[in-house]
Prior knowledge:
Blueprint: H1 3-23, H2 29-66, E1 68-72, E2 77-87, H3 98-111, E3 118-124, E4 130-138, H4 143-160, E5 164-168, H5 201-204, E6 211-216, E7 223-226, E8 235-238, H6 245-258, E9 262-267, E10 280-282, H7 300-311, H8 315-331, H9 336-346, H10 352-369, H11 372-376, H12 385-391, E11 395-399, H13 406-427, E12 434-438, H14 450-458, E13 464-470, H15 478-482, E14 486-489, H16 495-505, H17 509-514, E15 522-526, E16 534-538
Helix pairs in contact: 1-2, 2-4, 3-4, 7-8, 7-13, 8-9, 8-10, 9-10, 12-13, 13-14
Amino acid sequence: METRYFSLIPLLVGIYLLGSTFHIFSLNQEYIFYSVLAIILLIVILSKFYVSNKIKKIILHMNIKNSIYELQLTDESYYFIGFRIVGKENNNDIKIDYNSELQIAIDTVRRNKDRNLKVAIVTLLDPAPGSAILFYAKKDKDIEHLINEAILLKSMIESIAPHVTLEPISFKVNPVLPLPKVLGSVIYTGYIGQKKFDVKTDHIISGDYDIELGNILESSEIPIGIRSNDVFRHVGIFGSTGSGKSNTAALLSMELKKKGFDVIILDWHGEYKNLLRDFNVYDSQNFLVLNPIDTDDLTTMDIAELMGDALELTEPQKFLLYLGLEVLNQMHEFSFKTLLQVISANISDNTFMQRDVKFALTRKIIMLFSGLGEKLISSDNGYTYMDLGEKLRGGNIIDLSFIRSIKLRKLYALMILRFLLEYAIETRNKDRKMFIVIEEAQNYFNQMNTVISRALQEIRKFNVGLCIVSQSPSNVDQEVIKNTSIKIIHSIKSNIDKKVIADSLSLDKEGIQLMDKLDIGEALLVAPNLRKEVLIKVKKVV
Length: 542
Ligand SMILES: Nc1ncnc2c1ncn2[C@@H]1O[C@H](COP(=O)(O)OP(=O)(O)OP(=O)(O)O)[C@@H](O)[C@H]1O
């Protein structure tokens, strides 16, 4: 009964008692008038309560009746009644744990063994994607009885899980319902709420893909993927640490290699050799030596820029380095020892300022390149960009984790990337398709790195797809993120990173909230072959 009817009761009782007090001993006309008035009002209220409840019951009953389906398993038939699970709107900012609320309710209902109906949670696609509860029973049971029990169970669940409502589902034609293999087992997607599944099925399903990534989150039966040729418009994989980025990048690399791509993974933390066992691995035992001399089109200025970026050089220091590199280029020789000698001997230090710049630059070079640096970058047996491009065919993992100095690691990785891009531009990459995975991309694409950002725009037409992987998209140049046409967004916890991604995708408030609710391996996929973003569960590699 609605609360406004309750508020009328004290008023009626008041009127009646008033009348009684004044006329308790005399049965006069006024007393009879008040009594009759009170009784009429009481009758009106009670009848309203009864009718409104009855109407609700009838409507619900009819809805449910329209939602009873028959399910034929191998040797048994069942009736089932389905309810879509809808999270109630939450206006205050308190975080509601819909999942555990619902789980407690379901457990309570399932514990009651006396019931005819059993309960299962399934994901459904039709009439719209979402999660649903099924109440089901053997077909020989009385339908009316089942309906009454379903109504009862529905209200039990709603009262134990107050932030969840169950809406009867009606399927227009045949229900498309991926049922659990064994009825009664709870398939629990962990996502409740209509808003999340606002995407219409015909918006998301696309048969137009040749790289399968997994299945849509609402259904383990519907595979989903991307087109391999779309990777040339670049890929962004983002997510907090442990959200499943490396697995997704490894899956993509594996599938693209099968399609004839040459894949090169710049593996910042050394995670990929365990995931992709048939890839060539370059690590501390087997590293690639880079020769920045003999670079023809790769200008000395570009090398100076990359070194300047990795070493955090000032403009005067960068200029001095450039002068030194020019001399080495003419000598056709590169080693850090000769670079230092050239800077000391060939460049004047007449003024105090020149001496200061020179001293600071040589100090930075010495600190970085004595030891491993000397071995990694050298004209002695090193690969030029042409050699490197030719060498890295098939699947390749360049494990960078053995380089302890972050500055050296960054310079070495940047040089490899720059070499590969130069190779593609120079050769126009005819008859080849390349896919370069850049882990911890914020180290390469910070705001300052113009050399790489510029090359990124140039390589579009040369069959090179870059895959930018980052746990910290707010530290990646926003232009770079915008330049990725495929985005795979795993769970993101940090608000600033969420905002950056939401802006690049024009996500609404619900989309933003969704980003930190994803489980490991779950992601929001945006790709040119999909009409709208879709939640997916990525397949696990190995
Ligand atoms: N799609 C998936 N299905 C099931 N498990 C997964 C999936 N993706 C990743 N995992 C598991 O989750 C853990 C973290 O995965 P992964 O290393 O890919 O995350 P990450 O985001 O790259 O983390 P980090 O930033 O720390 O490298 C691993 O144990 C991995 O096996």
